[in-house]
Amino acid sequence: MELKKHSIAISGQPRTGDPKKCGTGTLTSQDNHGVQINERIRRLTPIECERLQGFPDDWTKYGIFEGVKKEISDMQRYKTLGNAVTTKVVELIIKKIYYNN
């Protein structure tokens, strides 16, 4: 099966081409990340960003403010996820350190 070319915009740097050779980018809190579908770019949802980071769905949906559980805005969720470290990366680093591989 041949992979189709795609376009993504991550950190404001649009990339087009073979998905295997497209390189990597960084999710940011700014409104410039998404997936291009035909002629338009669709913003990733907070849940899609959570999944990319390896977190459960709605992991960032609520927070505790002055002892009260409140829903967090999508913008704050994007900021939180942009500052997060991907869980699988941390797991691999710990395994490398622990097992000295």
What is the topology?
Blueprint lengths: L5 E5 L2 E5 L16 E4 L2 E4 L2 H8 L8 E4 L2 E4 L2 H10 L3 H13 L2
Antiparallel strand pairs: 1-2, 1-3, 3-4, 5-6
Give descriptors for this structure.
101 residues, 6 strands, two-stranded antiparallel ribbon, flat, alpha+beta
Characterization of this structure:
The structure is a single chain. Helices cover 31% and strands 26% of the residues. By secondary structure, the protein is α+β, with helices and mostly antiparallel strands. The strands form two sheets. It has a four-stranded antiparallel sheet, with no helix packed on it. Strands 5-6 form a two-stranded antiparallel sheet. Mean pLDDT is 77; it is low at 1-8 and 10-14.
Summarize this entry quickly.
The protein has helices spanning 46-53, 74-83, 87-99; strands at 6-10, 13-17, 34-37, 40-43, 62-65, 68-71. It is an alpha+beta fold and 101 residues long.
In the sheet with the most strands, the strands line up as: 2-1-3-4
Structural class: alpha+beta
Number of helices: 3
Rg measurement, Å? 16 Å
Number of strands: 6
N- to C-terminal separation? 35 Å
H and E order: EEEEHEEHH
